[in-house]
Amino acid sequence: MAKEKTKTEEKGKKEEKADEKKIEETKKEEKKIDGTEENKGKLKPEETVGVLGKETKPEKKEVKKQEIKPKEKAVVNGISLRISPKYSFAICKMIRRKNPDKAIEILEKVILKKVAVPMNNREVGHRKGRGMMAGRYPINAAKEFIELLKQLKANAVVNSVENPVITIIKANKASRPYKREGRRGKRTHVYIEARDKTKLNFNKNKKPKVNQEKKK
Fold first, then answer.
1. Which sign does the torsion angle of CA 162, 207, 174, 89 carry?
2. Which residues pair with 73 in a beta bridge?
3. Using an 8 Å Cβ cutoff, are 29 and 21 in contact?
4. Minimal CA–CA distance to 167: which of 76, 44, 56, 65?
5. Is 0.70 topped by the overall pTM?
6. Residue 131: which residues within 8 A CB-CB, separation 6 or more?
7. At the topology level of CATH, where does 73-210 sit?
8. Which run of H or E residues covers position 172?
């Protein structure tokens, strides 16, 4: 009886080993099948070689870059500046059609009280100077304008405007805030525009116009 038991046990072990081998073989076959299906869409390096013996590479799409047009003018905006609109009107009239560098030199002399800003249409005291009846030395307004003109020079360099000349400069009254005891402060908006001198036609009694090609 004992011998028969040992034989049956040995047979059972052999059958279990055979089953395990079959399972491993089936797994290996499944892996091979999966690998072939994944590589169906892919080409081998030998297959990429064309007729002339050169490898074919995927074509790259060309992206067109937009050309940036150079700007013809440089602009500066001063919003709600703490200066008097009366003085800013006079400074605008004094600086118009001048180079930013020359305008800065004139305003620096105004700060030093060597040159007065002409204000002939206002009830202001007389000052010495050629063609001047009345004038003042607005120091605070001159300092603000100098800062704006420096910004204008920098913008002209960035926008590649050579030989800049102030073509448009204007000042407007801004909203006046309330102070103590019902008083109101003075605020002014300033707009300055500069263009290339070579592209302008200046007339004494008219505004500068941009050169335009004649239509055929």
1. positive
2. 195
3. no
4. 76
5. no
6. 118
7. Ribosomal Protein L22; Chain A (3.90.470)
8. strand 164-173
| Antiparallel, parallel or unpaired: β 188-196 and 200-201 | unpaired
Residue 194's H or E segment, with its range, is: strand 188-196
Secondary structure percentages of the chain, helix, strand, coil, to 5: 40, 20, 40
Cβ atoms of residues 100 and 149 within 8 Å: yes
**How confident is residue 33, by pLDDT bands cut at 50, 70 and 90?**
low
**Model pLDDT for residues 179-189, shown as the tens digit of each residue:** 988 899 999 99
Domain spans of the chain, in order of start: 73-210
- Give SS3 for 117: strand
Q: Where are the beta strands (DSSP E) in 15-153?
A: 73-81, 117-118, 135-136
